Amino acid sequence: MAMNQPTNVSSVGSEHTSCQLTEKSYVAGTAVPPSTTDNSGLPNPLCQRAVTLVALSIEEKLRPREEEKLPLYKDSRRRLVFVGILIAWFFKGFDDSVISMKSTPDKASTIVPALSRQFDALDLIAWFSAAYFFPQACLAIGFGRLAAVANIRMLVVIDGMFLIVGSILCIIANSAAVFILGRAITGLGIALGFPLCATILISITSPDERLLYMAGCVGVDAMSLAFGSLLGGFFETNIDYRWVFALTIFGAVMSMVFIYPFQQPARPSDHLSAWQHFCRFDFLGFGLFLVCSVCVLLALQMATQNGRWNSTPVIVLFAVATVALPIFILQQRTHPHPDNRLLPRGIFSRDMSLLLGFGFFTMFAMYGVYYYLSTYFQSVHGLSSFDTGVCLLAFFITSGVASLATGVSTEFVTYANTIILTGVTLALVGSAVLTTLDQNTSRLKASLLTMISGFGFGTAQTLAVVFSQSWVAEHLQPLTVSIALMMQLLGGTLGLVLGGSLLNMRVRAGLQHLRGSLSEAQMTDIAQGSLPPEVLETLPAPVTVEVYTIMAQAVQNIFYTATGAVAVALFLAVCMRWHRIKTNA
């Protein structure tokens, strides 16, 4: 049956009982199936049969091939594609942690010291990471909508080119501006890679096995954070930092090679032209969302960098965001075609909104914990970047193992809420335990205590991504995963930025009574979380001990903030209705 050829059925002896249905209109959802009754209100068997035949024909065409019904591990082609997805997630985590978010280089945890020496641009150090994270937080939704309609293979190549070009710019950069541009382009590649991986993973897995494989990807991402921190510190100390970006190029090429065999299944919108897809895209909604998110992130970045929350640029940016947000919400609610808006109809149910908020606050706390654990080990215990990475291995490995265990548990646990509540409770306990760390806590004890929060966050961070796709209609699943990832990234970015601001303020306040023993430059360095050896060598021993105490108390305050964020996530989890993991359970 041709896709555009209508099916006509007329009842014998009656000119008033006829029905017409096209496969194109049925698939696109632009036509309502004809009435299956005649003028007298009685059932018309011929019309009913026509509708049934067309529906069965369409379902047969869109049904996956028989071999795709096999479990993923039994299909060599899909298994190869999944390996490519794992490679992409691994190098995404590596790229996340290889450059620190610190604004000072003296005791940064990765390759920032080498970058500072190379470019002599201390005032721009914070933008090395901001340029990378901002595109991900702002563009993931737009790219998610694109991945739902565009050719996946073409997008995989474009994504790889973003990563390769961005990394090459970072390698050849002879100025901070070029390096920041390279990091921004790399961030674009990561932002596009999020929805691509989600779309592909959903296509190559069945609903029953999807949770396990998705949790595996998140677990690989968590463990790759440790790899990036350790390898970045090793390269910064022993080899040229540019090798870090050469590894990113290698990862991009390998993921493209493995993912390219992916065979894209038929989609209901495939019959539409590129112009029709263009006209259906919600450019106004995307523009409003972009303005709001960019303004908020820029304002937070500027306020944290200069410590002036009442500066004119910061106030203006917050004001623009405050105006853009309600306009965006109103525009989405009044959109004439709810299925075509940026956030289509069917995503934000009560429980789905709670789950996305749960992911936001969980990652807000997790990023604050793992990043400022690095500050704790360096600025309170005086460890090198590599030794700090070793101390954090317990946190990252436990987090990765917990993500994998979460995926396995979905095979045995009936209700998703059981896993959600367990994970967030462990994260809450772990964050609260970290508030006990001080300058007298041994390195071994501190490292072991991080395992509680690592297991809790490893479980909790997986949940919003894993369960978001299973709580919406099938055609919304890839976009929903993209939104869940974006919400987590946005929460994590805010946790880092606000944590840095809190650290600076608390340290500055604690140093006030040492003003006679410290110069203004020394106080600025210490307030930014930096304790360079040349500063410590000039201080009397009592002052040095006092500085360590102040730093420990400042980091404790960040852990208190993280504990509060996890408590909010727990509250949201309690408010969710109980959902079965499998509908046939």
From TrEMBL:
> How does this protein lie in the membrane?
Multi-pass membrane protein
Every copy of the Major facilitator superfamily (MFS) profile domain together lies at 81-581
Tell me where it resides: Membrane
| UniProt KW keywords | Membrane, Transmembrane, Transmembrane helix
* UniProt keyword Transmembrane present: yes
What InterPro entries does UniProt report for this protein, alphabetically? MFS, MFS_dom, MFS_trans_sf
The membrane-spanning stretches of this chain are: 124-143, 155-179, 185-204, 211-235, 241-262, 283-302, 314-331, 352-373, 385-405, 412-434, 446-467, 479-503, 558-578
Xref: SUPFAM superfamilies: MFS general substrate transporter (SSF103473)
**PANTHER family assigned:** AZOLE RESISTANCE PROTEIN 1-RELATED, MAJOR FACILITATOR SUPERFAMILY
Q: What's the protein name?
A: Major facilitator superfamily (MFS) profile domain-containing protein
Q: Which organism is it from?
A: Apiospora phragmitis
